[in-house]
Amino acid sequence: MSFNTFGHLFRVTTWGESHGPALGATVDGCPPGVALDEAMIQTWLDRRKPGQNRHTTQRREPDAVEILSGVYEGRTTGTPIQLMIRNVDQRSKDYGNILDTFRPGHADITYFQKYGLRDPRGGGRSSARETAARVAAGAVAREVLKTLAPQVKITGYMVQMGPHHIDRTRFDAAEIDRNPFWVPDAQAAEDWARALDQIRKDGNSVGAMIEVVASGVPAGLGAPIYAKLDTELAAAMMSINAVKGVEIGAGMAAASLTGVENADEIEMGTDGPRYRSNKAGGILGGISTGQDVVVRFAIKPTSSIHTPRASVTRSGAPTEVVTKGRHDPCVGIRAVPVGEAMMACILLDQLLLHRAQTGATGPVAEIGACAPE
Amino acid sequence: MSFNTFGHLFRVTTWGESHGPALGATVDGCPPGVALDEAMIQTWLDRRKPGQNRHTTQRREPDAVEILSGVYEGRTTGTPIQLMIRNVDQRSKDYGNILDTFRPGHADITYFQKYGLRDPRGGGRSSARETAARVAAGAVAREVLKTLAPQVKITGYMVQMGPHHIDRTRFDAAEIDRNPFWVPDAQAAEDWARALDQIRKDGNSVGAMIEVVASGVPAGLGAPIYAKLDTELAAAMMSINAVKGVEIGAGMAAASLTGVENADEIEMGTDGPRYRSNKAGGILGGISTGQDVVVRFAIKPTSSIHTPRASVTRSGAPTEVVTKGRHDPCVGIRAVPVGEAMMACILLDQLLLHRAQTGATGPVAEIGACAPE
Amino acid sequence: MSFNTFGHLFRVTTWGESHGPALGATVDGCPPGVALDEAMIQTWLDRRKPGQNRHTTQRREPDAVEILSGVYEGRTTGTPIQLMIRNVDQRSKDYGNILDTFRPGHADITYFQKYGLRDPRGGGRSSARETAARVAAGAVAREVLKTLAPQVKITGYMVQMGPHHIDRTRFDAAEIDRNPFWVPDAQAAEDWARALDQIRKDGNSVGAMIEVVASGVPAGLGAPIYAKLDTELAAAMMSINAVKGVEIGAGMAAASLTGVENADEIEMGTDGPRYRSNKAGGILGGISTGQDVVVRFAIKPTSSIHTPRASVTRSGAPTEVVTKGRHDPCVGIRAVPVGEAMMACILLDQLLLHRAQTGATGPVAEIGACAPE
Amino acid sequence: MSFNTFGHLFRVTTWGESHGPALGATVDGCPPGVALDEAMIQTWLDRRKPGQNRHTTQRREPDAVEILSGVYEGRTTGTPIQLMIRNVDQRSKDYGNILDTFRPGHADITYFQKYGLRDPRGGGRSSARETAARVAAGAVAREVLKTLAPQVKITGYMVQMGPHHIDRTRFDAAEIDRNPFWVPDAQAAEDWARALDQIRKDGNSVGAMIEVVASGVPAGLGAPIYAKLDTELAAAMMSINAVKGVEIGAGMAAASLTGVENADEIEMGTDGPRYRSNKAGGILGGISTGQDVVVRFAIKPTSSIHTPRASVTRSGAPTEVVTKGRHDPCVGIRAVPVGEAMMACILLDQLLLHRAQTGATGPVAEIGACAPE
Predict the structure, then answer these.
(1) Given A154, C94, D30, D102, which is the most exposed site by the fewest CB atoms within 10 A?
(2) SS (H, E, C) D36-105
(3) CATH, residue C222
(4) Residue A98 distance to chain B (closest CA, Å)
(5) Chain A positions in Cβ-Cβ contact with residue B196 (cut-off 8 Å)
(6) What's the structural domain count of chain A?
(7) Is residue D54 annotated as involved in ligand binding?
(8) What is the pLDDT of residues C54-109, one digit of tens each?
(9) Does C81 contact B15 at a Cβ distance shorter than 8 Å?
């Protein structure tokens, strides 16, 4: 079996293979009356598009999206939105040599074990190409968020590439869109470019860490106990190819903290409670606090590398695998817009769930609004 | 809204509050004909039970489980299994002082913001007491796994408490059940006991890291793309109270690796492919490889501490919170059996999904079984 | 596998067997802040309760409900509500003779074929006793409806028992609660009592038709295409034991109509569009029109009868079955409150879904509110 | 919100509007390794295709299906199958006159009330054109059934058109494919052609009753209590446009029967239990008995008719509606292949659910296989 859908009310089903005729997303549960056209979606797809600089795969895909349903005269109708992206630049012959063997670290072997057959062209369904469909769906979510919670702002960026970390003291959000790494640190962008050139020259690849921050999220989003906001975000990010870990706020480092250190103390701001720190990453008990929602996820290095690695063939013979073809030396780079898209989809879904409960998108009870107890 | 159910085919809904009359789990989709009685479940509940040593809360709950449905003459019938645990040792007065204020780092405030009211007794639904229901459901999953995949073995243990890590060179699985920390390192158990005594004396608490390993998992489990085995595990673990991060295999450290380092090279063993390393944590492309499935998750320190922290009241007045009552100084300790239970539930669910696809619980295609290509 | 849950946002999972320790409903997704106590639920359970007159089974069950979670100080908290009803008057020995054979027309045989074993006591999970849990859940739904759409009124009644139909010209809603048949026709009540006495004396049983009408339902409820209001109602009613058919509005008779006859013509009332007829049963395109929602469902005669019927034993030997024990000669009677309960649950679920879309419970566009085109 | 997905494991999401660029079905959860190509699907689409004779709409749609994903080298891969059908023969100007008014008996008004806007071209999403996507999905289900349960045979046919019923004594399955009404009675086909010509000439339309029978269904399919086989079939059929009632076996007539009449007596056949009658329609307790599964559903007359009917405009002014455009005078005719498709999808879904439980597709316990008790 497979489950290619996520979301409770805003439900996205992605479909399509790397080298099949097309891929896309079926978006069901989108509220009606929201302005939407292909150009709005294309903007976001263009950010993820391969081949835009020397640091990503040289496959040339326009990733042109076509809206096949659910929009009438420029507005969503409340019916399913079908988003299709035709594949254009397939070079399936590049993959001939992996038909009968398995790239170490790649889903080749498990798809074969699970399904008994696989579409080997470009990794088939397990290709990162699937994430284009998520970005398209995320673009729809963003347009809906604009109408329901216009103050929400979602920003993703790289914070680590292999051993290289950003310097948080140099953090400059304006830099993110100015470099091919989506890194908020101009110096890092320069250093990483050199480092990645070397990685590529070595026939190697490298891992990455992405951070996605959502500001302006109203307090009260989240659906305890098993669709908590952090649970949903963990699932959303872990479902992206090559992700091996997800953390919220202090994250894995929370294991090292004491309760005194971890307690985000609360004071009263002019417009509600204000927290003195954000170890919680904007989520307590699975419900948003109103602070920035902060998620990080780790992307493993691309498994398709030019360096030979030991493997076996389908018939069990030992072999060495060298992957030709056009690959991202750091697939994490293009994961930035994907992480943003997943954040947009999850926030919208939770916003709709919350609105089902309360009729509104904000908190039910305002602190400070009650009479003194 | 709330969603208190997880699982696709083996579906668990937990219910109940910390200080309400009872709590429990409704387990639907359990295969019929499996031997099950209360004693089998009690064994696992007893591991998680509070008050067993000085390192956990002194609340005295027998956590005695009652099977209300779904079992006839000692066997499951295929109908829903209702597991109920009566609360016995409530001391709700301990919580009087947090009725109108919010513990920093606790779900008090967000439940109030989301629902407009909350059951303040013992944290209500957001209490770690909810995890007793998960352990009970996990015990059912274990009994089913015994019949469907008896070779599966699930082991959880602590690998970190605050700044203290286990020494992997001293790893001894036999130690796990011999100390109150479920730690596979006798020396660590001794050191941690001293450290936790001090933490408790300081009116403080501390975080922890848990590792859960499942061996014997057949290759082929997982339901790409959005119910991948790692996605499901990430959601399952993140849904546990106080968890702030989840990682699989190399996890967050994968961001630091190169492709050459990360590729788990494959060779042919006597009974199928064998991997020379397990950076993947037993999962590639969301599907199990047959290696050990390795998950780690970070638990933040208990937010109910005796040290005063700044907060606000419902009416917005500044205040200081000191939590009396009986609390775990390291709630991570009791999360070990909970992590194991979630692993059991998720593996069973995926096993059933896989059996729906194939009629069997093992891989569809065996490597080495094909004629040479 | 089994699926014991219905609903998208207001989700009800029923559990329990006829002669097990208890049965109940786990209600998840109930909005917070709604007044709820056991007495409110008991009122509705008492209507369905067996043994209240000579026309229903003489099993004496108080059907006393206990709220185990989800309610604090008389209000729902937004967390799962566990409703438990202890079984009290089991006489399992009555069923000894069907342990190894199968009642014709009963689920005995299919449960055995599906699960390989069954709880034979009182039909186990397939007993109409399961419907007590639905009535309890429906009572919760009614309380929520009272706050969200107080104008909604749900009324169920019998319109047919065997060959006996009500006379619609004598329809008097006030009669419904005055007779044991929930029949809106005093004369029918009298005639049917005599007829059913004879049926019972003959060791026979008889079928029934129930009609459930909801008035005051706002236009716009329904979630096309596969969770349409009529689809949901059809599933809800068909899921009740012994139901063999469901129809909306003109129903099966729509097959006989012409388009001219079937078109419910529309005129403008003082407060919106008004329909001159209601062939649609209040639903067009799966969405409520604002007219009365009208559902009918047929209940087959009880299969546990005193007249011998040919059957086989588990080992395949021919036999004759006569069911002793206490049975409803017309199980349709007690299905009236069950049908009402299902209507309440489905309407609430759709109302919440609609509110997720729009933030409100009424139609998005009012006819007559637009400027003339 | 909208829900355009049905199925638990074999999940079908349909999308698309009558006059949009395309429509289709996203089929997730299809087992891998099943032979599938466009021609196999086209066969079934061609049966439903409009314009094949004078009794259906004259819209000329080739309904040519394109497989965009999920199939590799002629076999399903286990990943989502995207089926797209381009719309070709739109004549949206035909609908200009209903932009601002509402056809009585049509979803025009409720879509407007629910969503505040609608795609008026050809009924948009509420058009019967959506059912082409179901037929495509059903064709996939049939191919899978062929491999899992090749003995299953699904046959749909009309049994009533307006006041005209088939004569069951003349029932001849071979006739079904020989006439435009899919009617198993040659005489009826002739009479109905004349009757429908008259209806069309009168600018009127007419309702219909469809029966769908599945033979060869193994005993044991069905997932009590809320995903029972009959529940699923009721929902599936009621979700089809214009359906107003659904019944199983004796159906609504069960209300008239006594228990003695309704009990399908059981005897031992050479290969298992055999029933002397089939009042149950092949389903007891929501689980298949192994007998023919028999479903009937009523289709209301097309609401787009040439006879003027009273209605209102969006601004509330009284008006009369006459629908021009090309419409089926009896939309029930083309519902026959749709009902078959839904039956195929539901049976496959239940077969997969059953296989998850048991590893096989047949009953768990065979009657007569046990030692004598």
Answers:
(1) C94
(2) CCHHHHHHHHHHHCCCCCCCCCCCCCCCCEEEEECEECCEECCCCEEEEEECCCCCHHHHHHHCCECCCC
(3) 3.60.150.10
(4) 12
(5) none
(6) 1
(7) yes
(8) 887 777 788 999 999 999 999 999 999 999 999 987 765 656 667 789 999 999 99
(9) yes
